[in-house]
UniProtKB/TrEMBL annotation:
Broad class of where this protein is predominantly found: membrane
Name of the molecule in the record: Transport permease protein
Source species of the chain: Streptomyces thermolilacinus SPC6
Family as reported in the entry's similarity comment: Belongs to the ABC-2 integral membrane protein family.
Superkingdom classification of source: Bacteria
InterPro entries: ABC2_TM (IPR013525), ABC2_TM_bact-type (IPR047817), ABC_2_transport (IPR000412), Nod_factor_ABC_transporter (IPR051784)
Protein backbone atom coordinates (compact mmCIF):
# COMPACT_ATOMS: atom_id res chain seq x y z
CA UNK A 1 0.00 0.00 0.00
CA UNK A 2 1.26 3.45 -0.82
CA UNK A 3 0.38 6.69 0.90
CA UNK A 4 -0.01 9.95 -0.99
CA UNK A 5 1.83 12.70 0.81
CA UNK A 6 1.57 16.40 0.03
CA UNK A 7 5.02 17.91 -0.29
CA UNK A 8 4.07 21.42 -1.37
CA UNK A 9 6.11 21.19 -4.59
CA UNK A 10 3.53 22.99 -6.71
CA UNK A 11 2.42 19.93 -8.72
CA UNK A 12 -1.12 19.91 -10.21
CA UNK A 13 -3.70 19.67 -7.47
CA UNK A 14 -1.36 20.92 -4.74
CA UNK A 15 -3.47 24.00 -4.01
CA UNK A 16 -6.64 21.91 -3.91
CA UNK A 17 -4.93 19.51 -1.50
CA UNK A 18 -3.97 22.35 0.84
CA UNK A 19 -7.48 23.81 0.73
CA UNK A 20 -8.94 20.39 1.52
CA UNK A 21 -6.59 20.04 4.49
CA UNK A 22 -7.45 23.54 5.75
CA UNK A 23 -11.17 22.78 5.56
CA UNK A 24 -10.66 19.45 7.33
CA UNK A 25 -8.81 21.11 10.22
CA UNK A 26 -11.44 23.88 10.30
CA UNK A 27 -14.22 21.29 10.53
CA UNK A 28 -12.43 19.48 13.33
CA UNK A 29 -11.98 22.73 15.25
CA UNK A 30 -15.63 23.73 14.77
CA UNK A 31 -16.72 20.30 16.02
CA UNK A 32 -14.88 20.96 19.28
CA UNK A 33 -16.20 24.51 19.52
CA UNK A 34 -19.78 23.22 19.28
CA UNK A 35 -19.27 21.71 22.71
CA UNK A 36 -18.15 25.07 24.11
CA UNK A 37 -20.95 27.56 23.25
CA UNK A 38 -19.78 29.79 26.07
CA UNK A 39 -16.83 30.76 23.88
CA UNK A 40 -19.04 33.20 21.95
CA UNK A 41 -20.26 34.80 25.17
CA UNK A 42 -16.68 35.04 26.41
CA UNK A 43 -15.66 36.89 23.26
CA UNK A 44 -18.64 39.27 23.42
CA UNK A 45 -18.70 39.83 27.19
CA UNK A 46 -16.02 42.49 27.54
CA UNK A 47 -17.33 44.61 24.63
CA UNK A 48 -20.87 44.31 25.98
CA UNK A 49 -19.80 45.48 29.43
CA UNK A 50 -17.94 48.43 27.94
CA UNK A 51 -20.88 49.45 25.76
CA UNK A 52 -23.44 49.15 28.55
CA UNK A 53 -21.32 50.83 31.20
CA UNK A 54 -20.07 53.68 29.02
CA UNK A 55 -22.51 53.89 26.14
CA UNK A 56 -25.65 53.62 28.26
CA UNK A 57 -25.04 54.37 31.92
CA UNK A 58 -22.58 57.24 31.32
CA UNK A 59 -23.84 58.46 27.94
CA UNK A 60 -25.06 61.78 29.38
CA UNK A 61 -21.87 62.34 31.37
CA UNK A 62 -19.44 62.06 28.44
CA UNK A 63 -19.31 64.80 25.84
CA UNK A 64 -17.58 64.47 22.49
CA UNK A 65 -15.42 67.42 21.35
CA UNK A 66 -17.08 67.41 17.92
CA UNK A 67 -20.57 66.64 19.24
CA UNK A 68 -22.84 63.72 18.39
CA UNK A 69 -24.48 60.84 20.22
CA UNK A 70 -22.06 58.99 22.46
CA UNK A 71 -23.99 55.71 22.01
CA UNK A 72 -23.10 55.86 18.30
CA UNK A 73 -19.53 56.88 19.02
CA UNK A 74 -18.84 54.01 21.41
CA UNK A 75 -20.22 51.22 19.20
CA UNK A 76 -17.17 51.08 16.92
CA UNK A 77 -14.97 50.70 19.99
CA UNK A 78 -17.10 47.80 21.22
CA UNK A 79 -17.08 46.12 17.80
CA UNK A 80 -13.30 46.32 17.53
CA UNK A 81 -12.95 45.08 21.11
CA UNK A 82 -14.49 41.80 19.92
CA UNK A 83 -11.37 41.26 17.82
CA UNK A 84 -9.10 41.97 20.77
CA UNK A 85 -11.11 39.55 22.92
CA UNK A 86 -10.41 36.77 20.39
CA UNK A 87 -6.64 36.93 20.96
CA UNK A 88 -6.59 35.19 24.33
CA UNK A 89 -8.83 32.17 23.58
CA UNK A 90 -7.01 31.45 20.33
CA UNK A 91 -3.59 31.76 21.96
CA UNK A 92 -4.61 29.46 24.80
CA UNK A 93 -6.13 26.89 22.41
CA UNK A 94 -2.99 26.68 20.28
CA UNK A 95 -0.79 26.55 23.39
CA UNK A 96 -2.92 23.70 24.75
CA UNK A 97 -2.42 21.83 21.48
CA UNK A 98 1.34 22.09 22.03
CA UNK A 99 1.01 21.05 25.67
CA UNK A 100 -1.28 18.11 24.93
CA UNK A 101 0.85 16.69 22.14
CA UNK A 102 -1.69 17.39 19.41
CA UNK A 103 0.86 19.39 17.44
CA UNK A 104 3.20 16.40 17.38
CA UNK A 105 0.38 14.21 16.05
CA UNK A 106 -0.39 16.72 13.32
CA UNK A 107 3.30 16.86 12.41
CA UNK A 108 3.30 13.08 11.91
CA UNK A 109 0.43 13.25 9.41
CA UNK A 110 0.94 13.73 5.64
CA UNK A 111 -0.59 17.23 5.61
CA UNK A 112 0.76 20.70 5.08
CA UNK A 113 1.77 22.20 8.42
CA UNK A 114 0.39 25.59 7.41
CA UNK A 115 -3.06 23.98 7.04
CA UNK A 116 -3.23 23.42 10.80
CA UNK A 117 -2.86 27.08 11.75
CA UNK A 118 -5.00 28.39 8.89
CA UNK A 119 -7.75 25.91 9.76
CA UNK A 120 -7.52 26.93 13.41
CA UNK A 121 -7.85 30.63 12.64
CA UNK A 122 -10.72 30.15 10.17
CA UNK A 123 -12.74 28.25 12.77
CA UNK A 124 -12.04 30.89 15.41
CA UNK A 125 -13.00 33.58 12.89
CA UNK A 126 -16.52 32.15 12.87
CA UNK A 127 -16.63 32.45 16.67
CA UNK A 128 -15.47 36.04 16.41
CA UNK A 129 -18.14 36.85 13.83
CA UNK A 130 -20.82 35.35 16.05
CA UNK A 131 -19.55 37.50 18.92
CA UNK A 132 -19.66 40.53 16.61
CA UNK A 133 -23.28 39.72 15.76
CA UNK A 134 -24.16 39.65 19.46
CA UNK A 135 -22.43 43.00 20.04
CA UNK A 136 -24.13 44.52 16.98
CA UNK A 137 -27.54 43.45 18.27
CA UNK A 138 -26.77 45.02 21.65
CA UNK A 139 -25.54 48.17 19.92
CA UNK A 140 -28.80 48.52 18.03
CA UNK A 141 -30.74 48.15 21.27
CA UNK A 142 -28.56 50.82 22.91
CA UNK A 143 -29.16 53.31 20.10
CA UNK A 144 -26.43 52.73 17.53
CA UNK A 145 -27.40 53.47 13.93
CA UNK A 146 -25.49 53.61 10.68
CA UNK A 147 -25.87 56.88 8.78
CA UNK A 148 -24.53 55.76 5.40
CA UNK A 149 -25.66 53.38 2.67
CA UNK A 150 -25.59 49.61 2.65
CA UNK A 151 -22.21 49.32 0.92
CA UNK A 152 -20.26 51.57 3.34
CA UNK A 153 -21.98 49.82 6.24
CA UNK A 154 -20.97 46.39 4.96
CA UNK A 155 -17.46 47.71 4.28
CA UNK A 156 -17.21 48.77 7.92
CA UNK A 157 -18.21 45.34 9.16
CA UNK A 158 -15.86 43.79 6.63
CA UNK A 159 -13.04 45.84 8.11
CA UNK A 160 -13.93 44.62 11.60
CA UNK A 161 -13.99 41.02 10.34
CA UNK A 162 -10.56 41.52 8.79
CA UNK A 163 -9.30 42.96 12.08
CA UNK A 164 -10.70 39.91 13.91
CA UNK A 165 -8.74 37.59 11.60
CA UNK A 166 -5.52 39.55 11.99
CA UNK A 167 -5.90 39.50 15.79
CA UNK A 168 -6.35 35.73 15.65
CA UNK A 169 -2.89 35.52 14.10
CA UNK A 170 -1.59 37.73 16.90
CA UNK A 171 -2.97 35.09 19.26
CA UNK A 172 -1.28 32.32 17.29
CA UNK A 173 2.01 34.20 17.43
CA UNK A 174 1.70 34.54 21.21
CA UNK A 175 1.01 30.82 21.48
CA UNK A 176 3.94 29.60 19.38
CA UNK A 177 6.26 32.10 21.09
CA UNK A 178 5.27 31.74 24.76
CA UNK A 179 3.83 28.16 24.73
CA UNK A 180 2.86 28.58 28.41
CA UNK A 181 -0.86 28.86 29.13
CA UNK A 182 -0.37 30.66 32.44
CA UNK A 183 1.86 33.29 30.85
CA UNK A 184 -0.60 33.81 28.01
CA UNK A 185 -3.42 34.23 30.53
CA UNK A 186 -1.49 37.06 32.15
CA UNK A 187 -0.56 38.84 28.91
CA UNK A 188 -3.82 38.76 26.95
CA UNK A 189 -6.02 40.78 29.38
CA UNK A 190 -3.69 43.70 28.69
CA UNK A 191 -4.68 43.50 25.02
CA UNK A 192 -8.41 43.35 25.73
CA UNK A 193 -8.62 46.03 28.42
CA UNK A 194 -5.69 48.40 28.10
CA UNK A 195 -5.37 48.81 24.32
CA UNK A 196 -8.95 50.11 23.85
CA UNK A 197 -8.49 52.70 26.60
CA UNK A 198 -5.22 53.80 24.97
CA UNK A 199 -7.11 54.49 21.75
CA UNK A 200 -10.11 56.46 20.57
CA UNK A 201 -12.47 53.58 21.38
CA UNK A 202 -14.23 55.23 24.31
CA UNK A 203 -12.65 58.66 24.72
CA UNK A 204 -11.38 61.28 22.32
CA UNK A 205 -7.56 61.45 22.24
CA UNK A 206 -7.81 65.24 22.65
CA UNK A 207 -9.27 64.75 26.12
CA UNK A 208 -6.36 62.57 27.27
CA UNK A 209 -3.19 63.77 29.07
CA UNK A 210 -0.57 65.16 26.70
CA UNK A 211 1.91 62.23 27.12
CA UNK A 212 -0.83 59.69 26.30
CA UNK A 213 -2.35 61.56 23.36
CA UNK A 214 0.22 60.51 20.68
CA UNK A 215 -0.05 56.88 21.80
CA UNK A 216 -3.83 56.97 21.38
CA UNK A 217 -3.58 58.71 18.01
CA UNK A 218 -1.08 56.25 16.54
CA UNK A 219 -2.50 53.14 18.18
CA UNK A 220 -3.48 50.79 15.30
CA UNK A 221 -6.76 50.14 17.09
CA UNK A 222 -7.60 53.84 16.74
CA UNK A 223 -7.17 53.74 12.97
CA UNK A 224 -9.51 50.77 12.57
CA UNK A 225 -12.12 52.38 14.83
CA UNK A 226 -11.87 55.75 13.07
CA UNK A 227 -12.24 54.03 9.68
CA UNK A 228 -15.37 52.21 10.89
CA UNK A 229 -16.90 55.43 12.18
CA UNK A 230 -16.20 57.09 8.86
CA UNK A 231 -17.79 54.22 6.93
CA UNK A 232 -20.82 54.14 9.25
CA UNK A 233 -21.25 57.90 9.42
CA UNK A 234 -20.93 57.91 13.22
CA UNK A 235 -19.46 60.73 15.33
CA UNK A 236 -15.69 60.82 15.07
CA UNK A 237 -12.81 62.62 16.71
CA UNK A 238 -10.45 64.95 14.96
CA UNK A 239 -7.11 66.34 16.02
CA UNK A 240 -5.02 66.87 12.95
CA UNK A 241 -2.86 63.75 13.28
CA UNK A 242 -2.15 61.73 10.13
CA UNK A 243 -4.03 58.59 11.33
CA UNK A 244 -7.07 60.71 12.23
CA UNK A 245 -7.11 62.35 8.81
CA UNK A 246 -6.47 59.14 6.81
CA UNK A 247 -7.93 56.30 8.95
CA UNK A 248 -8.86 53.92 6.12
CA UNK A 249 -5.43 54.04 4.50
CA UNK A 250 -3.60 53.71 7.83
CA UNK A 251 -5.84 50.83 8.90
CA UNK A 252 -5.27 48.97 5.61
CA UNK A 253 -1.49 49.32 5.79
CA UNK A 254 -1.34 48.46 9.49
CA UNK A 255 -3.46 45.33 9.16
CA UNK A 256 -1.51 44.20 6.11
CA UNK A 257 1.80 44.52 7.92
CA UNK A 258 0.48 42.87 11.10
CA UNK A 259 -0.94 39.91 9.17
CA UNK A 260 2.23 39.43 7.14
CA UNK A 261 4.51 39.54 10.17
CA UNK A 262 2.36 37.42 12.49
CA UNK A 263 1.48 34.75 9.92
CA UNK A 264 5.01 34.34 8.54
CA UNK A 265 6.68 34.22 11.95
CA UNK A 266 3.99 31.93 13.39
CA UNK A 267 4.21 29.46 10.51
CA UNK A 268 8.01 29.42 10.72
CA UNK A 269 7.99 28.78 14.46
CA UNK A 270 5.29 26.14 14.08
CA UNK A 271 7.24 24.25 11.42
CA UNK A 272 10.36 24.19 13.57
CA UNK A 273 8.57 23.40 16.85
CA UNK A 274 10.09 20.38 18.50
CA UNK A 275 12.54 19.78 15.66
Amino acid sequence: MTTATYTGTGRPGALAAVLTEVLAVTGRRLHHLRRAPGRVIGVALSPLVSMVMLGYLFRDAIRLPAGGEYSEYVFAGGAVQVALACVGPTAISVAMDFKGGLVDRFRSLPISRSAVLFGHTLADLLVGLLGLAVVTGAGLLLGWRTRTGILPTLAGFGLVALFVYVMLWVGVLLAVTLRNVETISVVTPFIVVVLPFLSNAFLAPQSMPAPIRPIAEWNPVSSVIAACRELWGNPATTGGSFPAEHPVAVAAVTLGVLFAVCSVVSLRRYRTAGS
